[in-house]
Amino acid sequence: MERPGVFKLPEGYHWRAGVLACSTSRARGVRPDESGGKIQEACRKWWRTEVTARRAVADDRREISRVLNNWCEQGLDVIFTTGGAGFSPTDVTPDATRDVITREAPGLAELMRAAWAKKNNRAWLSRGVAGFRKKTLLLNLPGDPAAVGECLKALRGILPAALENAAGRLRDVPLSSVG
Description:
It is a single chain. By secondary structure, the chain is an alpha/beta fold. The protein has a single domain, classed as MoaB/Mog-like domain (Molybdenum Cofactor Biosythetic Enzyme, Chain A), CATH 3.40.980. Helix content is 39%, strand content 18%. The chain is built from 7 helices and 6 strands. A 6-stranded mixed β-sheet has the order 2-1-3-6-5-4, sandwiched between helices. Strand 5 and strand 6 form a beta hairpin. The longest helix is centred in the N-terminal third of the chain and has 14 residues. The radius of gyration is 15 Å and the shape is globular. The N terminus and C terminus are likely disordered.
């Protein structure tokens, strides 16, 4: 059942996405990337978005930035990162993302934190950011699958409007009417 007020994609249209797990243990294959799987499923189910790039990298600022830059240059519409956004000294995903983006989208990061905080006040310990490099939207999500689920629910209605607006196709539709 569709929710009223949720922006609908034109028939047959989809975006291209990347999912980057930023975790040394996931990159080494020690832990499965459940959060990345959740993101990929939401992309398919909610946004008819094809995940054309998916990878796990260690908690290394330069490597994360390199992959994000590469994916932006490939013209992906949206890149989701998962993990590495906390207070630990090895959590460098937001720093690497800031190295790449040229315009921040702080409202999206705040939206995800607020939605997650309704279930777990540890959400306020996230340093995750959101922003653009050219027309690619980059979003830092937590590493915990349950937290990722809450963040994705928060993005469900607004993400299509953000991507269409960034592409210059939604200038006359107020974002307040979405979601």
